[in-house]
Amino acid sequence: MEERFAKPDEMFGGFLALKPYDPPSWASHLSPVPSHVYSLGHLPTPIHKWKLPNLSEDTEIWIKRDDLSGMQLSGNKVRKLEFLLADAKARGADCVITVGGIQSNHCRATAVAARYLSLDSYLILRTSKLLVDKDPGFTGNLLVERLVGANVELVSKEDYAKIGGVALADLLKERLITEGRKPYVIPVGGSNSLGSWGYIEAIREIEYQTQGSFAFDDIAVACGSGGTIAGLALGSALSTLKAKVHAFSVCDDPNYFYDFVQGLLDGLHAGIDSHDIVNIQDAKGLGYAMSTVEELQFVKDVAAATGVVLDPVYSGKAANALMKDIVSNPAKWKGRKVLFIHTGGLLGLYDKTEQLPSVGNWRKMELEESIPRKEGIGKMF
């Protein structure tokens, strides 16, 4: 089994290092193969069994904790940025541009990773028409972005829909070039053919982690921009894993993502039809970043039962949809070992605090006036 992971004597100084990239043997025929990769994540991320509430004994669910990938809880975005920022630096960029929603995990991850590598970041963030000319505040991802010095450019959802993220990024790129900057554009979610290598590489990591134990029958994951599922599905199909990949789309519709993933596969000259390697189901509910009471209740119940906190935009919707499918189609999932990829996004919960059902218990501690004081370690006052 090929092994990319550092031995103890190789670990010091490895984080943030730029390294030549050697692809898995089963992916070496893809083209183009990245020449270098930055070490931005705390990898490999752990895998453990996940006993979800109401899960049948006939189905096993395990979870890969890509929410613990590092870089201020940046989740799946880290893996893509390892390749994208290596390309940005190779091209001589001094800043990066990317696009997303007002609470975009990807934009926050890009801002942090860029600052790690001494690059400035420019974030085009969608917001409502009523708020586009007002300070966006410091809730959730915005706090981290602003702490690391990101340049936030607000655009209304209406203008975004009319102009599109690609054109908006191009406009900002042209402006920065006239100012003497050297910008590098990272697409929404980091989802292009180069970014997909992040999850091709994740499949090699899963191979390494499961060797000599057992094989997963299925991989389940949220789909928001398409790059993660493209890498997972292609990697699983080419590697020894051969797990069936199930994607739960939290925006757009399955047909859009089949076409988009096909474009990424074609960009790698994979010679594979997206329909043959991934099953995509609609899980967007009310719409992107919009949560139902049921979805938020599910996030709360899972946290209370398992200690795993899901985000409301991606993994919360995907895990909820997966559980619904398991309950509705028990024969389909009977005897299966399923690996759920937790793609992160914890900070997105801060934008939902007013919608969350009642969380936790509290009370004032009852004390008697006669209780004598006892000194402990680390006297505070």
Plain-language structure description:
- Keywords: Lyase, Mitochondrion, Pyridoxal phosphate, Transit peptide.
- Its main location: mitochondrion.
- It comes from Vanilla planifolia.
- The chain contains 13 helices and twelve strands.
- By secondary structure, it is of the alpha/beta class.
- The protein has a six-stranded mixed β-sheet. The chain has a four-stranded parallel β-sheet with strand order 7-6-5-8.
- Helix 3 packs parallel to helix 4, helix 7 packs across helix 8 and helix 8 crosses helix 9.
- The radius of gyration is 22 Å and the shape is globular.
> What CATH architecture label of the largest domain applies?
3-Layer(aba) Sandwich
| Domain unit count | 2
As a percent range, the share of strand residues is 15-25%
Look up the CATH topology of the largest domain: Rossmann fold
The CATH class designation of the largest domain is Alpha Beta
Residues in helix, %: 25-40%
Characterize this entry briefly.
The chain contains 13 helices and 12 strands. With 381 residues, the protein is α/β, with parallel strands linked by helices. Helix 8 links the parallel strand 9 (218-223) and strand 10.
Strand and helix layout:
Layout lengths: L7 H4 L6 E3 L15 E3 L8 E3 L10 E5 L12 H14 L4 E7 L3 H12 L3 E8 L13 H7 L3 E6 H7 L1 H14 L4 E3 L11 H14 L7 E6 L3 H12 L5 E6 L4 H14 L6 H4 E5 L10 H14 L8 H14 L1 H4 L3 E5 L40
Parallel strand pairs: 4-12, 5-6, 5-8, 6-7, 9-10, 9-12, 10-11
Antiparallel strand pairs: 1-2, 3-4
Helix pairs in contact: 2-3, 2-7, 3-4, 7-8, 8-9
InterPro entries: ACCD_DCysDesulf, D-Cys_desShydrase, TrpB-like_PALP, TrpB-like_PALP_sf
Keywords: Lyase, Mitochondrion, Pyridoxal phosphate, Transit peptide
Cofactor: pyridoxal 5'-phosphate
